[in-house]
Amino acid sequence: AQLDTLDIIVLAVILVGTAAYFTKGKVWGVTKDPYAASFANANGHKAGKTRNIIEKMEETGKNCVIFYGSQTGTAEDYASRLAKEGKSRFGLETMVADLEDYDYENLDAIPEDKVVMFVLATYGEGEPTDNAVDFYEFITGEDVSFSNSADPPLGNLNYVAFGLGNNTYEHYNSMVRNVNKALEKLGAHRIGEAGEGDDGAGTMEEDFLAWKDPMWAALAAKMGLEERESVYEPILGIVERENLTKDSPEVYLGEPNKMHLEGAAKGPFNAHNPYIAPIVESKELFSVKDRNCLHLEVDISGSGNLSYQTGDHIAIWPTNPGQEVEQFLNILGLEDKKDTVISVKALEPTAKVPFPTPTTYDAIVRYHLEICAPVSRQFLGTLAAFAPDETVKAEMAKLGNDKDYFQEKISKNHYNIARTLSVVSDGKKWTNAPFSAFIEGLTKLQPRYYSISSSSVVQPKKISITAVVETQVIPGRADPFKGVATNYLLALKQKQNGDPNPEPFGLTYELTGPRNKYDGVHVPVHVRHSNFKLPSDPSKPIIMIGPGTGVAPFRGFVQERAHQAKSGENVGRTLLFFGCRKREEDFVYESEWEEYKKSLGDNFELITAFSREGPNKVYVQHRLKEKAQEVNELLQKKAYLYVCGDAANMAREVNAVLAQIIAEQRGIPETKAEEIVKNMRASNQYQEDVW
Ligand code: FAD
User: Fold this and answer.
1) DSSP string, 497-542
2) Is 691 one of the annotated active-site residues of the chain?
3) What are phi and psi of 654, to 5 degrees?
4) DSSP symbol at 80
5) pLDDT digits (tens, 9 = 90+) for 558-589
6) Helix (H) or strand (E) holding 522
7) DSSP 145
8) ipTM over the 0.85 cut-off
9) Which of 59, 100, 326, 595 would give a disulfide with 131, using CB separation of 3.0 to 4.6 Å?
């Protein structure tokens, strides 16, 4: 039989690996490491890279491209999973593509025997993700035009569509809906339904699984594909680098890119290149022992290019806790190899290696993979083949196939992948499971975003963060569930306050970072600009609604307006609705608000709602209603209204209460009031920063 390209590449890698073994890698000079290039290539720095998708597919022998529009990595993951499944179950030659990396004018020239899939997340207020903005504007544009002028323009295009959204937002899954509509209008043929996953209902994964099977059936029928027994085929190859140790200068120990490795991390700092920022101040904001809310001050003055504006977000690049890293390596039987140096290489030209190599198992698990995240049921099905024995294999297959069983055994307990494997195999090691499957099957460790809680006018070079530490007691599970980034920040806060070896809740972190580059209490960060902004004219009234950590950006807003008032500017009415459990427990920044009031005078009013003090639960939306008359008057004076915090309940209820207030106060029907609220959103008079 003829070898296909993938086979040849696999063989080549094995041969190169073997050569490396026998030569102890001596043929590879430090600067000419054939593996070192793969990360740069994978990240689009390769010169002359084509933006022509048809050319790319022809060059690489693909007949199915899966485009993704992704913000936090989930859509990208789903795209990879579709690619793997298409290949292993149906022999499709699949590739995954970032929407940002290609042009779209030739979508009309994609041959009929190929298929294009779109996995599209909706972001914020129904917006495309950053990497999908151009595509979205192109495809939904009034005067969209393609290279050929066929009629209908996309009559040849076969496509598949899945959207990731959140039903608590008004524009639920609007990306996939609008793109689907646009494609239909242009005459393209959809295969299967346009799927919709709902993060708001917590059913994203199950929605995806329920959608994809009928889609595959429809696709197989349409393209005449035969299903075969699916086996795991790696798209990443791993080669142990015997000649390198973790102390070799070219080995990445968690450094995010080459500049960081070489010690001279330079700007511009952005989502691909974090700034290692000093934490210069930190404190606890809650007065209770069992819950924590952190206030941190991050100094960006040494960064050169980093700047922020009031209302922006800061991203924290977390590190996984030592215990979870250990458990992960142990269950795979890699504990003795944790510092072994490996290179990871894309086995096919369209695959991406998600981190720079050569590196170590430990560094990959600690700095680059979401090892603590919820487990994908489909992934367990894939791993069944590598179970340590037949009983475990059967159990894994059952978990993979049975949604309710999976929910009961795994999801309910908040188990991550290592705990799941360990529970299912009763501690037996998974030494047969290829490490590549985990790199391919787990999400890349994601930065966490925080609404900046300081004003850039008051402290342009110091960013404040207000973060509540994520911890949940899970019934039936011995230890509480711990969030990744916030517990890492808690450890950093303890260190900043003088504890040399902090162990919050028994968790330890490599706080000094790769090669001690984060020593002296540093954290990798970048800044993301947002549209959540104060009116440029400070005399305009504003209404802010931010319970819990939702108050974060409003601390920045009030800080700014207090500063403006102090400097003699005319500052308008400033209403802040804040809610928490009890005044004595979690009323954050209580004394600061009093300080700000000294500058702002009676123009500033803080309206509090303590949900656990009286016989009835009182929330910010109740207080808003009590203030109906003034709220309505301010809105009629074109006050800006801001909501920040919990998207699932609070933000939705505030929206509803607002419509009620307008209806009652203006004596108009509620449908009309809802229309007014919608228009306020459309004109940015009503802004949300919710998560
Ligand atoms: P993670 O480890 O990411 O866990 C988060 C949640 O995911 C858990 O609570 C749980 O529900 C689920 N989960 C994770 N692992 C599992 C598992 N194995 N099984 C089941 N469920 C699991 N937060 C603030 O405190 N302050 C802010 O100002 C703030 N601003 C934000 C602004 C924006 C734009 C966004 C998007 C978010 C903001 N957040 C803010 C939230 C913040 O980004 C983080 O999501 C939060 O701090 C939790 O991060 P973590 O890494 O500690 O938790």
Assistant:
1) TT-SS--GGG----TT-GGGTTTTTEEEEEEE--S----SSTTS-E
2) yes
3) -60, -45
4) H
5) 999 999 999 999 999 999 999 999 999 999 99
6) strand 522-528
7) -
8) yes
9) 100
- CA-to-CA separations, 448 to 210, 343, 500, 508, 624, in angstroms, rounded: 29, 27, 25, 19, 30
Question: Contact at 8 Å (CB) between 485 and 491?
Answer: no
The pLDDT value given to residue 119:
98
Please work out whether the CB of residue 449 comes within 6 Å of at least one atom of ligand 1: yes
Whole-number pLDDT of residue 48: 62
| Angle, vertex CA 273, rays to CA 272 and CA 277, nearest 5 | 140
Residues 6+ apart with CB under 8 A from 24: 242, 243
Q: What is the pTM of this model?
A: 0.90
pLDDT in tens, 600-650: 999 999 999 999 999 999 999 999 999 999 999 999 999 999 999 998 889
Kindly give the distance from the C-alpha atom of residue 290 to the centroid of ligand 1, in angstroms, as a whole number: 18
Angle at which helix 204-223 crosses helix 74-90, to 10 degrees, equals 40
For atom 53 of ligand 1, which residue has the closest CA?
Answer: 483
Structure tokens at 35: 């593996």
Rg from Cα positions in the chain: 27
Contact 315, 303 (CB under 8 A): no
Q: Atom 10 in ligand 1: which residue has the minimum CA distance?
A: 483
**Catalytic residue (one of 28, 436, 644, 646):** 644
Q: Report residues of the chain scoring pLDDT below 50.
A: 1-47
